[in-house]
Amino acid sequence: MKNLYKKLLIFLLPLVVGWGALEFFYRTTETNYTYKTAQLIENYDAIEILILGDSHTFYGLNPVYFTSETFNLANISQTLYFDELLLEKHIYSMPNLKTVILNVSYFSLSSMDNSKEDSWRKYFYEVQMDLDVPIVSPFAPQKYSLALARRLNKSFQLINNYHENETIVNCYKNGFGIQGERDIVKDKEAISSFIANKHEDGLLDFENNTARLQRMITLCKEKNINVILLEMPVYSTYYNLLSQEKWAKIESTLGSLVAENKNVFHLDLTQNPAFKKEDLRDADHLTNEGAEKCSKLINRYLAEII
């Protein structure tokens, strides 16, 4: 029996040590979540414009080109679900906040709560952004151990990135995402087909997320904060491959929110002629130059309407 216990201990020890090391990594290493939270809190009093949304605004709106003090709180694959949680948590701590920019992508209004994209991110939002996330079950082991939240190969990739770059934070102090020339896709026709197929969920039920947008709008209205419902530029082939019925419903839904709320404005840049092929790095993300153009355009728009 002693030999059995000894063999079991020898077998388990490397697993326990590996789990402990990975947990330590996730609990102590600065990430976009912890870094953005710290920078946001540090600049509470100064921020006048807050940008929320997914990777489209994370990589597409650079606060440097806004006249007013701006912070980009968007994150990769961040849904309206987490936009709402972040806004609820921080809005009362920003006394000078005047405008909230809410990115609405093709899939935003039809996104499901607790989707596949949120399967591991929700635990990091809760732990590393200090959010109370209702979709996190108190019985989920990942709630208490981030090492269990992601697949091992993804964790190893992250650790490798850390060793290569000495950081896994890929945004500036203002929250804008860092990207290089190597991220630009040459064949935008091919990538448009691939991404359109990935984003087409076939869903037209917007009720849940429309209600979520209205709650955020109402929250902003209470503090005399304007809301910009923003649709970012996308490549024309990508746009045309997606359901035109859904695009039309997105426009009508956002239009209704504008009509019903005096503090809301809708800016649709999806097919704005100001943006050329060279401004996009793939089907639906801007290059750094495209982000500069987009940021300056929105800054001018804000000056005109507010």
Query: Could you say which overall geometry the principal axes of the C-alpha atoms support?
Result: globular
Tell me, what is the CATH class of the domain at 49-116 and 174-305? Answer: Alpha Beta
Biggest beta sheet summary: 5 strands, parallel
Low-confidence stretches: none
- Report Rg: 21 Å
Describe this structure in words.
There is one protein chain. It contains eleven helices and five strands. It is an alpha/beta fold and 306 residues long. It has a domain at 49-116 and 174-305: Rossmann fold (3-Layer(aba) Sandwich). It has a five-stranded parallel beta sheet with strand order 2-1-3-4-5. Helix 4 packs parallel to helix 8. The longest helix has 27 residues, at 2-28. The protein is globular and about 75 Å long.
Distinctive features:
306 residues, alpha/beta, Rossmann fold, 5-stranded parallel sheet, globular, single chain
Helix-strand blueprint:
Blueprint: H1 2-28, H2 32-42, E1 49-52, H3 55-58, E2 70-72, H4 80-90, E3 99-103, H5 118-128, H6 152-165, H7 188-199, H8 207-222, E4 226-231, H9 236-241, H10 244-260, E5 264-268, H11 288-305
Parallel strand pairs: 1-2, 1-3, 3-4, 4-5
How would you concisely characterize the structure shown here?
By secondary structure, this protein is of the alpha/beta class.
